């Protein structure tokens, strides 16, 4: 397969999406082939190293913004179709019911997601507090040391070391939680995209 054939086949598989998105992907893979050929690969080897056109097209669709996928899906469903008058009337009359249910579902999702982030922020606040207490313990240690209160200095040092240790553990735990939230969010959006793509291909 030549570079031209590869790009033509790829364009056919993603041409239903907005022109700017299609052109961006075409330029990206054209440059990638050129770069690999400059590194010493033949045209066929450079194309083969990218993988199959089907896999690339699937990856491009997964990386598209979810708003683009929704717009495309809506456009496909409504293209060449006219909604009956009775359906329009039902939508308008039933809006107080289905509109309020939709708003309630969206509000629940937003509140649930916000609560997750609030809990995460609280964890980081605890980390900051523990760090501050450890720092205060160090100051207290040196202060008592200079005053000759060795017993109090040891107490402050012990408190500082304890809070520092707990703070490090809390920091690592908070970091894992934050990464988990980001990964979970990305996974959810990716599943929504894949569902839209599967429906579209069906």
Account of the 3D structure:
The model has no long low-confidence stretch (mean pLDDT 82). The chain has eight helices and no strands. The chain is mostly helical and 202 residues long. It is flat and about 85 Å long. Helices cover 88% and strands 0% of the residues. It has two domains: 3-64, no CATH class; 101-201.
Distance between the termini: 28 Å
Radius of gyration from CA coordinates: 29 Å
Alpha plus pi helix count:
8
What is the H/E order? Answer: HHHHHHHH
- What would the average pLDDT be, to the nearest integer? 82
Overall tally of structural domains: 2
Helix fraction, binned, reads: over 70%
Structural class: mainly alpha
By DSSP, the count of extended strands is 0
The residue ranges in which pLDDT falls below 50 over 5 or more consecutive positions are none
Major sheet attributes = none
Task: State the shape.
Answer: flat
Approximately how much beta-strand content do the residues carry? under 5%
